[in-house]
Task: structure prediction
Amino acid sequence: MNIEITFSPMLGQIFDRDFPLTFLEALVKFFSASFAFLFLAGCIGGLIFLIHFLFTLPMRRAERARLFLDLLESALQRGQSLEAMILSIAQSRDRTLGVRFHLLAAHIESGLRFVTALEKVPRFLPPQISAMLRVGEKLGDLRRVLPACREILRDRPAAVRSAMHYMILVVLLFSPVFIFVVMMTAVMVIPRFKEVAAGMGIKLWPVTMFIFGHTSWLIGIETVISLLLVAAVLIYIGGPQFVRWFQFRGLPFADWIAWRIPWKQKRLQRTFSAMLAVLLDGGVPEGEAVRLAGDCTANEICRHRARLVLAALEQGIKLDDAVRTFDSSGEFHWRLTNATHARGGFLSALQGWHEALDAKAFQQEEASAHAVTSGLVILNGVLVALIATGMFGILIACVNAALLW
Result:
């Protein structure tokens, strides 16, 4: 059986050897442009997603902790054990609480109790919250420490978040691009200006010679400042557990820095005060309450100051006088003195003190973020002005030399 295959004239033209290559070249250019466009769009989309992820990471971390505290309180009100509540949520495959929650559930499923399992997953909750929950178990009632835990997780005002986000944007995007452009200018443009001036035998201005002679130093100072700010942004984004990586035994460098930062110091004071109030309301002896409150701060400097308070108590000094080591202004002493005579417990009496500390901390944090961002922008502007002055100095010298000729 013979089968005859025929081709249409159009197909014959397409597959003809003399078919021009312009169509294939245009096709290759079209696919290349499409690939470049898709690649660029993917890079921009990935950058936007990365910025969104970094901006929302601290808020999502705090939101997960608040949700977990709500679940704990709901289980305690129902009379349900915490272990059963965690296992039931883990079995539902809900991802709202993150991967570490399911790791916590796996430890509980292996037979560990809640607090013991929580110690196996230290990055699930902030260290202060974990320490407070351990203290709550020692008291025999976790509900007593939940109000103090929520004070730590109080959300930042919108103005503070906006200031921090603007600083992150400037530090992670604007500053590196600016440093790269200035470095390229110093490497590619400034040497050409110097060659032109040398070829014409022009004597440069002293200001121009100083700027061009110290350009690398100016760029180096800008780079060091930017790297320090990047480290600060990473600490803000990474949270307490990221800071723990820089903590060394016998040398609490990270804790010392945290105590020296004004707004962090006020939050540590609030944590110590809130937990001390909870423990005193629970009938814990003053010495034990001070020690446990110092542990709940998860800060070695605060633990050291708590030991100083304990030493003062052992010498017979009253608690409201002994806590002066935590507040040099004396306001904590005054608040605690009044709390001993107030009704409703220590935590209720110190609520105004805690809110005042939070307000001052938020104010200082917002002011610092604006100051850092404005200072970095001004520094970049000064560096640009210096380099532009040096370059225009050469141009003016060249024009003057040409006019003299």
